[in-house]
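Morning, I've got a small favour to ask if you have a moment. You're getting the sequence in one-letter code plus the fold written as tokens. Thanks so much in advance, here it is:

===
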Amino acid sequence: MIRKEQSAVEYFRKKIFYVMLLIVHKKKVAKPVLKGKGKKKKLQPKKFTIDTSHPVEDSIMVVTDFEKFLHDRIKVNGKTNNLGNSVTIERNKSKITVTADCRFCKRYLKYLTKKYLKKHNLRDWLRVVANGKDSYELRYFQINNEDEDEEEENE
């Protein structure tokens, strides 16, 4: 019986030893992570442009209306009409420039542009194409194939 009691005591000692090792090991691993947590990087201002020259020249679209739409719809920290100094929208002839000091992605701008086109029934004729790392352009869909088919049928 003494052997059984000793083995049980040894068993529990080993268990406690392993648990203490795990606790100590976790604390050692967690310390370096906490050191770097206090530093926050300041976000660089991002500048995105949307070129609307083609539809504006054909007087299909009004740039001021699109600018107002963006101003009303852009969300900052989950709220609309919360632009403040963090997001600025500027218009130069037919180009709209959105500058953001906060977290802002290019894809969100494309989403809003598509939403505007859908609202004004322009989505069937225009598409939003990236022509650079930080810019979009509104282009017409290419319908050359249908025109060629019609010409072949007429001949």
Q: What stands out?
A: The chain has a mean pLDDT of 83. The chain has five helices and seven strands.
